[in-house]
Amino acid sequence: MSTLRWNGREREVAAPLTAPLLDVLRDELGDTTPKPGCREGRCGACTVLLDGEPVLSCLVPLGRALDGEVTTLAGGVQGSSSAAGVAGVQDAFAAAGAVQCGICTPGMIMAVHAVLSETPDATDEQVLEGLVNNLCRCTGYQKIREAVATLTRRSESARG
Ligand code: FES
Ligand code: FES
Fold this sequence. Notes:
By secondary structure, this protein is α+β, with helices and mostly antiparallel strands. 42% of the residues lie in helices and 13% in strands. The chain has 7 helices and 5 strands; from the N terminus they run ββαββαβααααα. Strands 2-1-5-3-4 form a 5-stranded mixed sheet, sandwiched between helices. The radius of gyration is 15 Å and the shape is globular. The model has no long low-confidence stretch (mean pLDDT 93). The structure holds FE2/S2 (inorganic) cluster (2 copies). The site of one FE2/S2 (inorganic) cluster has 12 residues, from loops. One FE2/S2 (inorganic) cluster is lined by residues 99-105, 136-139.
């Protein structure tokens, strides 16, 4: 057994150290917010934060994640209240209609949140750069851009 720090808790997990973090989260911990898309590091649907940095959980072995704190969409929503927090980003995506099938959405939200946490006054371009590893096959990206623009405008008005 190993101890994984996940969304502010410590949980014992039985998976081997080589198991993909994505599978441990979904199958052992029942956290289905990280989505299995390509499982090859090409779509970003499985994005979670490891010590605040976005990582592709399909490519991260459990053994590497044991050194840090894993945050998924589920934990981020519970733990956030600011506009750039996970819940705020989720609200912006919902308001802009940037969600269709929803497979890409948790990964997109975690990636946007990571940029805005690191750089609260990030421009649209900087946030969209943070999404280069996140693919969406449904929305054509326009609604996603609109959601991002809402968030960057909020940070502009917060700066006055
Ligand atoms: S499922 Fe991990 S990058 Fe596609
Ligand atoms: S909403 Fe379907 S893949 Fe993005």
